[in-house]
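Our preliminary data section would be incomplete without showing what the modeling component actually yields. Below, a chain of 244 amino acids is followed by its predicted structure, encoded as tokens that our downstream tools consume directly.
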Amino acid sequence: MIEEKSVSDAINYRRSVRVYDSEKAIDTEKVRQCIKQAVLAPNSSNMQLWEFHHIVSESIKNKMIPYCFDQNAAKTAQQLVVVVVRKDLWKKRVKANLKHVDSLYTSKPKSERSSREKVIRNYYGKLIPFTYADFLGIFGWLKYFMVTLIGLFRPMYREVRNKDMRIVAHKSAGLAAQTFMLSMAAIGYDTCPMEGTDTSRIKRLLNLPFGAEINMVIGCGIRKPEGVYGERFRVPFKEVCKEW
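Predicted structure:
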């Protein structure tokens, strides 16, 4: 039985492993548990605009390999996890959050609701729809000009265009992907995030709708020594950390 690593140990252990040991299988249920931990990741407005497609079928995995450009991290992987952004589900997620609010507060007339409840309901009932709603990019630009004008006089949230919200959704998915990879590292499993993929073909293979977007494909397995390509390199810390 593998003893779970501490957070610091898992961070140091995690590497992008590109060659996995075919003789060392990984437990599908343990990988699934790591995905369950991934969905606990912080995300914008708790919208959870993501999906995780866990590829355990050998036939599907083999079809994925050429779509990952025959990378070793895909060819030798025991399993794959495809992190998918589902910005198109924002209306459904708003309803889910409002339903959760209903479970937190007993039913009261609007006049008797606490200020906190009113803020939360207005946030999901008005602000989030205002932020995410768009039509062919037109509404997004109208919102952008409006917030830019208001921003001349006070601090203002400015990421309101469709392309801005795509970035927001992908950032949240990236946080979940990193949580998954650290969870895997904690139990001695290895991963490799791959961005070099044919996302269009992967979407068709997984029967994803038009509005879904591939964030990354993650190879999973147990590393071979040659699967880690050399010592970890990072630029000097003082170049990336600025104190003010």
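The chain has two domains: 8-43+50-88+170-240, 90-163. Residues 8-43+50-88+170-240 form a domain with the NADH Oxidase fold (CATH 3.40.109.10). Preliminary results of this kind motivate Aim 1 of the renewal.
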